[in-house]
Write a structure and sequence with these properties.
Elements (H helix, E strand, L loop, with lengths): L2 H27 L5 H34 L1 E2 L2 E2 L2 H20 L1
Helix pairs in contact: 1-2
């Protein structure tokens, strides 16, 4: 499954679990104690869905940075590096010609 699809699915699961949790909490507020078990399960589901979403987002972000040439928090400026290499080669050529 492509990571974008997984992220969409995990986000949908997160929203569904959050909806179940909110519904169970509304039931508890109305005095329906049988909703307590549903609320506890919804919290567990919500936690798991959130972990999946965050893991997948982190994975996607890491891949995006890798593809863009970012290592850690810094991006490689390949154009600047190329210019610097050219400048140094020109200096070496000039020094040789003297």
């Amino acid at each position: 499954m492509p990571s974008g699809d997984f992220l969409d699915e995990a986000t949908a699961l997160f929203r569904e679990a959050a909806g179940e949790l909110f519904g169970a909490l509304r039931g508890l507020r109305r005095g329906r104690t049988e909703e307590a078990k549903a609320a506890a399960q919804a919290v567990k589901d919500l936690k798991q869905a959130l972990e999946w979403v965050m893991d997948e987002r982190n994975r996607c972000e890491k891949y995006r940075k890798s593809a863009a040439g970012v290592v850690g928090t810094r991006a490689h400026d390949l154009d600047a590096a190329r210019d610097e290499i050219g400048r140094r080669l020109a200096c070496l050529r000039n020094a040789r010609d003297d």
